[in-house]
């Protein structure tokens, strides 16, 4: 069989394990889409728009390790760029592939549709360089294999998105076949001297410390170091806390687990554990304004061992040239037992008392009922807003996954991301918690859950406004038009769908709705949970005030 550029790309994507790629058609990528369809190992999955396509791929990468999204030039790719920025912030290898102008049109002065109306077609590549770890433009078949391999390899190595554009007349041009994938995935060699020095410096901190605590951060998953983190915790036998964005990245049934470290809004006791440690091991953390609660809780100082994905900083020195996994593995081999912090503290499980069946539905009762649904097979996707705080206070069984987008924080992310995640892990039960304000951005992607018969259960929190923004900074702009959210499902079902739209205004109605949702395996179920606007978690309000204070610092006098 003659091989083409598009077939080469498809085989590479399939070799790295993709079973699906996401797409929105447009005339610059139609031939490319045909070429990708030749590969029977991968299914082409369609989205309503390119922003959602990017977020769907982002969700797939969360479930599956990597993903690809295929869009058309400018009108498509620039919409998708927002989601690619999200994938960058969240450390997810999403390959964005855009069709691009015919190679004969470059440098000719021709003005093309879907472009800025100038004759320079390099602007999209330039823009994408800022939100990806590798970006290539393919305008000839001969250089395509090297460019495709470079983009895929860099994305996988750096766990960041990457970008490819392929001239629309080149995607079916003849090219060589891909070689084996092992050469593409080869790991970088370890600097043994640096690794040994980092481990020795870390051990000397641990050996002179009795109060040792671990803080697990959100980059631990992208660094593929979750098992190594748990193993180190087994050896140290110390207390372990997690950061909010790392919810579910450390098993909560582990005997050292002591809940969430999030400054003032930590689980009871967790802040004291962290602040009173002689040695604090921060594994792959992200310290930003949100995670430090407006810069009020940022562990720093000589007692902090900062183990980042590509670097360790301890006792005033930084070490590089190895991965986090390698560092944690080596450290665990010699780590001393330091059980004091675990012995002196207890895991705090928040207990929410059930309300009567006919009582008005509350945020607490909704959270309680959702928590009771979680099993080791659940993936809980929680949108920006109070859903963050509800998800992070849940008690998780081992194996349950929580997906948050706390670095990028794009409202509306969760609907397409849950769709992509469900596509990428169909053996799991997907539950989505999303506020009404967020849902209004990307609601139409629920239609793809109907189309692909994915039994995602959506808890739509109708509190009639942007409650998180009300907590941070109130004004008339925080109040939204109400929708009939449950009613939307009928629109998306049209003549052939099996989605279910339900409403719950009391605790009993919610329990009934959950029963129906669990029984509906042929499509998604949206349960519109109607709660009072003022009913939100206490932590949201407390955290919101501190973040607002950080945002409203006055400019420094010059
Ligand atoms: O729980 P709740 O009521 O806060 O959730 P809801 O209703 O989804 O409201 C979220 C409100 C919100 C906004 C408007 N959270 N962050 N923002 C700012 C924002 C605006 N645009 C984008 C794309 N992302 C944002 N985070």
Automatic annotation (TrEMBL):
User: Which cofactors are required for activity?
Assistant: thiamine diphosphate; Mg(2+)
Q: Where is the Thiamine pyrophosphate enzyme N-terminal TPP-binding domain?
A: 4-113
Keyword Lyase attributed: yes
Q: What reactions does this protein catalyze?
A: a 2-oxocarboxylate + H(+) = an aldehyde + CO2
User: Which InterPro entries would you find in this protein's record?
Assistant: DHS-like_NAD/FAD-binding_dom, PDC/IPDC-like, THDP-binding, Thiamin_PyroP_enz_cen_dom, Thiamin_PyroP_enz_TPP-bd_dom, TPP_enzyme_TPP-bd, TPP_PDC_IPDC, TPP_PYR_PDC_IPDC-like
GO cellular component entries: cytosol
GO molecular function of the protein, one example? thiamine pyrophosphate binding
Question: What family does this chain come from, according to its entry?
Answer: Belongs to the TPP enzyme family.
What is the protein name given in its UniProt record? pyruvate decarboxylase
Q: Please tell me the species this chain comes from.
A: Acetobacter pomorum
